[in-house]
């Protein structure tokens, strides 16, 4: 007799991926949300440090000399849970963000695949781009704006945000609904390029392991490897956009007329290297983040294929 645990392991290891078939968007919503929620709980501290370093503009007296100094000062001033300030805003958004991303990707993929369930290179990029733009507009921009304001607020002598609900209420009260949509252009550019790069790299690596047969199962370890490489590629490909987006969403957003002006100010005060501030902590988070999410998503989809018949 197999135990429940043994049965689950058997399902995850042996269930067909269904890569050649169209995937139901409803399953993508569930699998994406599940993966997104687990991921942010594990990686938020590195996101916090990355955001702190990006907000620490050289245009003013810098607070931190580097990653280690930022970690040391944060722990000394706020303790271990100081690294989780702003988690609630990101957690509330991470589940629907991943859901919208994978739903958007699978919906576009279902429209663009050929009869063999394959995408051309251009269509793979378009599917990823479409997924990124959709999540940017629907979820990411307001979520990231609130998160950045929360983290930036902690650096003030007298923080004014007492929690997620209070923070959102104060932002809307002072700046209106559009106050939660600051840096929209930069966010669309960042998320669109992010997902275009990630899905393109992930799918190409996965296809190489499959030997051109998209019904072949590549296993958990290889899926994790493909996701990690895709995450690293996206970091080096669009960190400049991430820096500009973070500046546009901070409490000093009033210093910039628009996204282009913000980029010009970064170049003026920080030079080219200013566009890569926070790269190391972001790289550590994103590589694990993307590998984790793609792996959990793929395995969850297999289980859903067994328990939820949609063909």
Description:
This protein is mainly alpha-helical and 311 residues long. 72% of the residues lie in helices and 0% in strands. It contains ten helices and no strands. It has helices at residues 4-14, 25-55, 67-78, 87-112, 121-154, 164-175, 184-210, 220-249, 259-270, 279-307. The longest helix has 34 residues, at 121-154. The radius of gyration is 20 Å and the shape is globular. The two termini are 30 Å apart. Residues 10-19 have low confidence and may be disordered.
Give the helices and strands, then pairings:
Layout: H1 4-14, H2 25-55, H3 67-78, H4 87-112, H5 121-154, H6 164-175, H7 184-210, H8 220-249, H9 259-270, H10 279-307
Helix pairs in contact: 2-4, 2-10, 4-5, 5-7, 7-8, 8-9, 8-10
């Amino acid at each position: 007799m197999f135990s429940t645990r043994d049965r689950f392991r058997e399902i995850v290891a042996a269930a067909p991926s269904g890569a050649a078939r169209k995937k139901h968007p409803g399953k993508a919503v569930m699998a994406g949300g599940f993966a997104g929620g687990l991921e942010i709980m594990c990686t938020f501290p590195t996101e916090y440090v990355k955001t702190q370093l990006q907000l620490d503009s050289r245009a003013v007296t810098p607070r931190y000399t580097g990653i280690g100094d930022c970690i040391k000062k944060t722990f000394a001033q706020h303790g271990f849970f100081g690294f989780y300030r702003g988690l609630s805003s990101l957690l509330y958004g991470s589940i629907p963000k991943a859901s919208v991303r994978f739903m958007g990707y699978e919906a576009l993929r279902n429209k663009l695949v050929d009869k063999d369930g394959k995408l051309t290179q251009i269509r793979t990029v378009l599917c990823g781009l479409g997924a990124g733009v959709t999540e940017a507009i629907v979820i990411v921009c307001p979520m990231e704006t609130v998160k950045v304001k929360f983290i930036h607020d902690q650096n003030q002598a007298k923080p004014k945000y007492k929690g997620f609900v209070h923070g959102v209420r104060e932002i809307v009260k002072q700046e209106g609904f559009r106050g939660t949509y600051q840096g929209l252009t930069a966010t669309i550019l960042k998320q669109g390029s992010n997902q275009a790069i990630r899905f393109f790299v992930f799918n190409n690596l996965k296809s190489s392991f499959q030997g051109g047969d998209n019904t072949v199962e590549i296993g958990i370890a290889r899926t994790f490897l493909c996701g990690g490489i895709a995450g690293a590629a996206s970091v080096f490909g669009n960190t400049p956009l991430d820096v500009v987006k973070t500046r546009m969403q901070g409490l000093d957003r009033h210093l910039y007329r628009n996204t282009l002006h913000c980029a010009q100010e970064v170049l003026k005060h920080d030079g080219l290297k200013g566009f890569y501030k926070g790269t190391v902590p972001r790289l550590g988070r994103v590589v694990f983040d993307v590998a984790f999410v793609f792996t959990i998503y793929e395995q969850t989809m297999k289980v859903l294929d067994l328990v939820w018949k949609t063909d």
